[in-house]
Design brief:
Elements lengths: L1 H21 L16 E4 L5 E4 L4 E2 L5 E11 L2 E10 L4 E4 L4 E5 L5 E2 L2 E4 L21 E4 L3 E9 L11 E7 L6 E10 L2 H4 E4 L4
Parallel strand pairs: 3-6, 9-14
Antiparallel strand pairs: 1-2, 4-5, 5-11, 6-10, 7-8, 7-12, 11-14, 12-13
Length: 200
Amino acid sequence: MRRGLISVAIFFAFVAIFTLSRHHTPTVTTTTTAAPITTTTTSSSGTTTTSTLAEAACQGSSFNGVYNEGQGAAGTVYASVILTKTSPGTCAETGWPIVTLQDKAGALLPVNLVKVPSAGNELQFSAPKANRAPTQLLLHQGSATSFSLAYSSVETANTVCDNALTLNIQFATGGSAVPVTAPYAVQPCDNGKIWVSPFY
């Protein structure tokens, strides 16, 4: 009787071990994908742009330019330039334009750029934004930015007043330029002294 019970116990133990050895828990793999980091920036014109990457610096080759002849007062000529982005995508720019001048033959003329506003500079432009410190602007296809400029056209014995027909505008040193043709000759005296505002 005892041997029968032992045999039965061994049989059930064997069945239990066999059953447990065939049972396994499946492995579960979970993959988590993080959402891309985005930044939202509002430009001075009120346009909000959301981007996942830092915006590239603006290049003059992506813009068309228009020169707007302004008014003169006490021998100082005021004007402005409007630059419109023609290429797809968005770019960023901050600061003052880099301006070079060319005469009708394409020769480079001397230029002495004076940034407005700056310490000790009392010149004021008629556009309020032109007299403010630079701010970052984000420009997309079809949007525009401007800057103001002024120069003295009073010729004296000690000044040179060149005749420039083309202004080449760069957003930053080393960047490509956008050529802008003036309807009338730009004649900055005092060896090409031109006051320029930041982009606005």
